[in-house]
Amino acid sequence: MKLLTFAHRGEAQAFLSAYTFKPVDFFFDGLLISPEYYLLITGEGPHAASEKTTAVLAKFSESITHVYNIGVAGSLTPELKMHDLLWIRTSYAHHAEKLEFKSFSSENSKAAHDCMTAFNRVLDMEEKRKLSHFANIVDRELWAIASAANLFKKPYLALKIISDEMKATEIDICKFVKEEAPLLSEKLLHEFQKTELLTVKKITPKIDSEFLNDPLFYFTTSQERKLNSTLQAITLKGLTEKELVMDSEVRAIKVMDKLPKERTRLLLLFLSEKLNPISVKIRAKIENAIAPLEAAKISISYDNDFEEDYINLTVKIQSTRDLEKVKNALKIFSYEEYKTIFDGNFDV
Questions:
Q1: What is the pLDDT of residues 256-277, one digit of tens each?
Q2: Integer distance in angstroms from the first to the last C-alpha of the chain?
Q3: What is the pTM of this model?
Q4: Of 144, 308, 331, 338, whose CB count within 10 A is highest?
Q5: Long-range contacts of 236-245 (CB under 8 A, 24+ apart)
Q6: Is the separation of the CB atoms in 21 and 34 below 8 Å?
């Protein structure tokens, strides 16, 4: 079953009419169930959304396969107009004047819009302009819900409808959402049902990739899927695969004296950083933290997507001196510092 999340009941009213929902006896009000879906009213803001979504997933994780977030959002660009319906590609968050480094990509590989979740209401035009460098719409809940879904390893999708344009004021927003909630909800339901019919079975479309046909690389099935989804996302940002193939860093990877599998790993890393430039800064912080281990010739691997804070160490000891080097390096290495980077507690 799929979990549908909404900030307010007004956004969910068309869904409540379309399906036979009944209240679930739970720790708090706002959780309902139908033969097809769970539906959760989270309340406004990332804290409420995170707490309630996490609680529901913890209790019903075995029966929930996907998490949806559906509702209104504000535009951060003049190109997006009132009532525009958008499927979201990536969710970011902005808190206490800082951008949270962790972002979450949705399962919808064809989505072309990114959403910034703000911990406070964004009403000032200058603040909207700042956020527009990272996303083209802003909401109050998606990142928190996507984070909870990620914690339980559930794919998420997000559907938003524009409720206020760049020029809107606080009074405009409140009045519009309150008066137009029935219409907004109907439009969301129509788009949701249309997409549900087309995506009963979701398969990442395979693309004709020059990288896949290059004998200098070797892709496993999972790496091929990652290449496909990453290239599609990069293409939506205006870069073509042809331009990437000609990039100096890609050409450098091709001529490295390494096995095809290792070249493939480096290529996917490069593409990931092209898609998310912030990851370059994160990786630099990590490399600085693990420098004592590398100096002791300890082989290190970690999650290149920065979702899990594990670290794998492999060491070859051929003498007592080697052993002492490893012991000293482990004393110097601070796992707490390393974990802090993954928790996002640094200024990017």
A1: 999 998 999 899 988 888 877 7
A2: 38
A3: 0.58
A4: 144
A5: 236/89, 236/112, 237/275, 239/274, 241/209, 241/210, 241/211, 242/210, 244/271, 244/274, 245/210, 245/211
A6: yes
